[in-house]
Sequence to fold (592 residues):
Amino acid sequence: MSQLSTDKLSVAFAGLKALSDVDLTIKPGHITGLIGPNGAGKTTLVNVLTGFQAPTGGAVSLDGNALNGLKPHQIRRKGIARTFQGGRLFRDLAVIDNLEVTGVGLGQSRAQARAEAVAMLDWIGIPALQNRIAGTLPYTDERRVAIGRALIGKPDYILLDEPAAGMSGAEAADLSALIRRIASEMGCGVLLIEHNVGLVLNLCDHIVVLDSGAVIETGSPEAIRGSEKVRHAYMGTAAETNLPVLETLS
Amino acid sequence: MSVARRTISTPVILALLLIALALMAVFSGSRPFNQTIIDIFLRVILVVGLYIFIGNSGVISFGHAGFTCLGGYAAAWLTIPPMMKQTLLPGLPDWLMNLQLPFWAGAIFAAVWAAIWAAVFGKILMRLSGIAASIATFAMLAMINTIYSNWESVTAATSSVVGIPIVRSIWPYLIAAILAVFVAWAHSISRAGLALRAARDEPTAAAASGIDAPKERLVAFIISGAVMGMGGALFAHSIGVVTPDTFYLTLTFITLSMLVVGGMGSLSGAVLGVVILSGLIQGLRWLEAGVSIGTTTFAIPNGLQEITLGIVMILILARRPSGIMANSELNWTRSRSEDPGV
Fold:
């Protein structure tokens, strides 16, 4: 069966373990949530899955084929897309060109890439932004454009790194609807990293909880809601940074 | 509307500007003015060649004068009469010794020769980015200069290689300059151009979009190397003589200054930078040669050209870091704050 998975994935920085024996599976058409306190290793895991960080142990595989050693652009061409926490749009280019870049990167002609970019902007509901310079967009639109850019070429998997950060409740609800459509209409496997735990619990089919680089719990949203381990992981850091998370979790 | 149709006015306007300069030279009937315009066209070729790589990749290259050197000497090898080559360059292989091509064919081969070496060097250098890549390109220039300054039997070392057929007609230079502008525009609107600019602006996101930045940089490096090689060949035919130092630090400094002043991210800026600074250089040359007023001749010290260029470059960098044109292009309707290929 088609899947993106990791097997005992580990990453260490100068002796400090950022990831430790992480096993994770993402399936097409499913939304997998990845949560954990700050510093749990969530972004590091996404960086390893997309080739931006080399693992120090374990393996990443797509449909049983190892991805270790591939460069980020090669992994993207295999159908694994990602977004970034900061959006990272090409700020001097128009929105349409931001999407066109991915088509070009995937080997399309400019005309093909443009046609798909236009269709994608329509699909994600922001066709009016086509000619806006990306650097002038409000934060929420920037996130949508980043998702649209990642969806060009209809990837098999998309890894969304905190797409709802800074969004209001209504904006996060719109984003949730979009993510559902990505999984259901495109059949794309989604890995959702998000500090808004409520959004993850409502949206995901399956959730993985990381703490200090290790998987401490996996399961359905219901199982995660009732997990003492998860509660403890968040309570452990609540005094420092994550008090609102506690409220969302309960 | 296709990207080509949306942006074609930029190279057309620049070509019309160059044609206007050529017509001015022809109608003036002045030989020195004709030579001045030829010099401008040569600089347009070289600075546009630089723009193809620097403007799109964001990597400052200090090494492109090396491709001009390769092109200039290739033109010498291919167009000097065999009798002269036997005396000046006895180490050339027989087939090259006995070959004499017309200047335009020599220029084509010079472009191909420079492109081949750009591919060889670029294969290694284009894995680098930022300041490391810039320093590596300078090392490449130093290597080329050292080889050409010491290979006595093939390059005459530091001696002048004379006998290169001089081409005084302005039209070949005009055609080559317009060709360079259209090549730069075509690359800019191509897949490779868009991908390279994306990698320049946001390398991480570009990689996540499937773009192989070193490959795209290499493509631009080869194309710009070819344009610089062609420029080097025509440079040789404009003065009839080459030495390795013709294509070294001074040329590097002048061409980079023109690109910086015009705007590194703009094809129009590359051309306008040449026109504006060439006017300044010509004025300074005139003053260096001395201006007679009555019985007294006033002259500024030699070398003031470079000093003035340096001051202009510093002022531009301080007051308008992205150059006169910034990232905008000349357009029929308005100046667009976008790259030509977008």
Summary: Residues 4-87+155-249 of chain A form a domain with the Rossmann fold fold (CATH 3.40.50.300). Chain A has one domain: 4-87+155-249.
